[in-house]
Specification:
This protein has 220 residues and is mainly alpha-helical. It is 57% helix and 6% strand. The protein has seven helices and two strands; from the N terminus they run ββααααααα.
């Protein structure tokens, strides 16, 4: 067994893997029986070492598509957490405890990526062999829009006005997410990269508005 750095999108984390394993490993590392899936042995119930470059989509049982069922994501996340909880491995070997711990960390990271619409799109681009990149001709448009909204936000000093701002920005985010779904479906990755830039800044504006709302609420 050894510790390696596993890439998760453009995120990296340490995971325990089997030194003898490879992408074609089909037998359990503890009992040597054939495996019916990549993560657990149906014969001895041992959790299996993570393969390098494990897809977060595959790990949580989703197709590699942008649109996913968030309610199902929640369910699968909690199911995974139950399966690799430390209490499940009392009395197991230190090696298997280490493998289970790496799964626990990985499922948290996978959940974070798939739940976040921006990170999910970013990861899916990388999964498809595309780089994040930039589409320079849209920079001026994006900069102008962001600056106008930032200037407006700093002038808002009423909770109701900030909530209206947040509602408009959330609607914009919803529209951008719908665009991403369409562009991924048609493999229009240049359009995906363009929309991602707008989504990144819309998310930032929404977060700034939430902070401003909280600040105003606490001052009254």
């Amino acid at each position: 067994m050894k510790k390696v750095v596993v890439a998760v999108g453009n995120h990296f984390m340490s995971s325990i893997v089997n030194e003898k394993s490879n992408e074609n490993r089909m037998t359990c590392w503890t009992c040597d029986e054939n495996l019916s899936n990549d993560f657990f042995c149906s014969h001895c119930d041992s959790v299996q070492p993570l393969k390098e470059n494990t897809s977060v989509f595959h790990y949580l049982g989703f197709e590699k598509t942008y649109s996913i069922d968030l309610a199902m994501l929640e369910k699968k996340y909690f199911d995974w957490q139950m399966r690799v909880h430390p209490d499940k491995f009392i009395g197991r070997s230190d090696e298997e405890k280490a493998v289970a711990s790496s799964h626990s960390a990985f499922v948290n990271q996978a959940y974070k990526i798939l739940k976040d619409s921006y990170l999910r799109a970013e990861h899916l681009l990388i999964d498809k062999g595309e780089n994040i990149g930039h589409v320079s001709e849209f920079d001026a448009i994006l900069l102008e829009e962001v600056m106008e909204k930032q200037e407006l936000l700093v002038t808002l000093d009423k909770k109701e006005a900030i909530q209206d701002f947040m509602e408009r920005e959330q609607n914009k985010i919803n529209d951008l997410e719908n665009e991403l779904s369409l562009h991924f479906a048609s493999d229009d990755f240049d359009a995906v990269r363009r929309v991602l830039k707008f989504l990144k800044y819309s998310n930032k504006l929404l977060e700034d508005a939430r902070k401003q709302e909280k600040k105003i609420s606490s001052s009254h």
